[in-house]
Amino acid sequence: MKRSLPSCLLTLLCAMAAFGAHASDAAKATPKGDAARGQAVASTVCVACHGPDGNSPLAVNPKLAGQHPDYLLKQMKNFKAADGKQPERVNAIMNGMIAAYDEGQMRDLSAYFASQVQKGETAKNRETIELGQKLYRAGDMSKGLPACAACHGPAGAGIPAQYPRIGGQFPEYMEAQMKSFRDGGRANDPNKMMRMVALKMTDAEIKAVADYVAGLR
Ligand code: HEC
Ligand code: HEC
User: Which of 61, 76, 199, 211 is deepest in the core (most CB within 10 A)?
Assistant: First the structure.
């Protein structure tokens, strides 16, 4: 019982920060994309790796179906190199794939994938499910690790606009991203939010939480 108050407070603070960010994003509202136009590109280009509806067949290619449109748009912009500079999110495949599209087309693509229904994965590792659940829901106060749920929501659905849906995502992809945040290979998270989290985690903890999150709905 001793731990429940501080972790509860942390959850509350994070949730408040998230709603604050949401409000200011809404203030500078931007035009919504056109899902039908997005589908035209998605079904001819993105389909090769992300499937026709964003439910990618292979775990190296993340699921895009049902993801928040603002998060999708941010990632596409981060993958695109601006004025000869290094892109904010480095991945040879996506840096190349997104180069041809302008912001309007990225908005259309985001609207399309966000409107699709994600087909979730399942947790597979019985031995680590308890650890994964504990880390997800409560974090680990002894090393200052916040609960994932504080930012990604109790069921992994994320909190628009900043915090992505992670429930149902491929565990292999999530594990790779968390390790990449930890070693600084991925550094496009606002205020180093994910880098601070991943730095405090061991390989075994990352694997356990990724497996647990895959089965969240
Ligand atoms: C040749 C395979 C391939 C194609 C085609 C492709 N992608 Fe990707 N995509 C990837 C891979 C691999 C990643 C994961 C990159 C990483 O590990 O950082 C990714 C990641 C993404 C992400 C980030 C998702 C997240 O959860 O952070 C978005 C958004 C995305 N792709 C959009 C698109 C769009 C839109 C198209 C079509 C214009 C497209 N992709 C075409 C392979 C592909
Ligand atoms: C303080 C808030 C916060 C906490 C706590 C947090 N995250 Fe995140 N997470 C974020 C943000 C923000 C992003 C998106 C970064 C970006 O814009 O690229 C993210 C992205 C991710 C991604 C990449 C998603 C994708 O589609 O590429 C994964 C995986 C992830 N988080 C897992 C976790 C796990 C597991 C935990 C708990 C151990 C956790 N996060 C705790 C804020 C947080």
Answer: 211
